[in-house]
Specification:
The protein is α+β, with helices and mostly antiparallel strands. It has two domains: about 60 residues, Winged helix-like DNA-binding domain superfamily/Winged helix DNA-binding domain (Arc Repressor Mutant, subunit A), CATH 1.10.10.10; about 180 residues, Beta-Lactamase, CATH 3.30.450. Helix content is about 50%, strand content about 20%.
Amino acid sequence: MVSGEGFQPVKSADRTLEVLEALAASGQRRSLVDLARSLDIPKSSLHGILRTMIQRGWVEADDTGTRFGLGVRALQVGAAYLETDDTVSLLAGVLDDLSQQFGETVHLGRLDGASVVYMAKRESVHPLRLYSAIGRRLPAHATALGKVLLAERTDEAVDGLLTWPLAALTPHTIADPDALYADLAAIRERGYAIDNQENTEGLVCFAVAAPLHSPAVDAVSLSVPVARLDSALEERIVVALRRSVGTLRAARGLLSDHARPADASM
């Protein structure tokens, strides 16, 4: 394992990964000038990196050859990651069950620093639905998935994770530190999080943490447009999510059993 104090990243590898992360974060093709400016990489060096990545299939250029986006190799690696992720496999049944019960969008999300990343999803059966994509990153403080995972940590740990000041994605986003910490305390008390139009106007989301690790790093959510939500449906969703926690605890035992052979060899 390569780690420890004094480690210096290989510059060319570091820059290559920065390019991949920048293209993934933008969700659209970007020009050489734009990438060079945002990554602070000389255009001559960046041009060589991009040409190499194009040759290997990690990056693709548009017809003009001036704008660049992720290539098919990035898709293959991302798909391989999901296929070999134990949590995605173990919680597939939970996602399926919630989807069948409510016909609404269901997500599995993972905390990654100050963001939450969609790891799996089940589509809503309704024409009016949440737009989302596996691999999409959202600010943790503005989503039910992210908040329920932040609530698994102390306020001091949360303070170190988040980037201040917090971005307000909608007029409803909780961006004030005191208000956010109060909301996290309420989440710890009731056991689930609510995103009341904090990420997307017109959409309410409910989430519970998956108790597979301590503190939890994964969570399951169910999103409903305000137009379809009433108190009776909200109560049904909360009951179903709470029930799923028991299923998730059972899955934790399966995950531990699955991990034992690897642990024993270390």
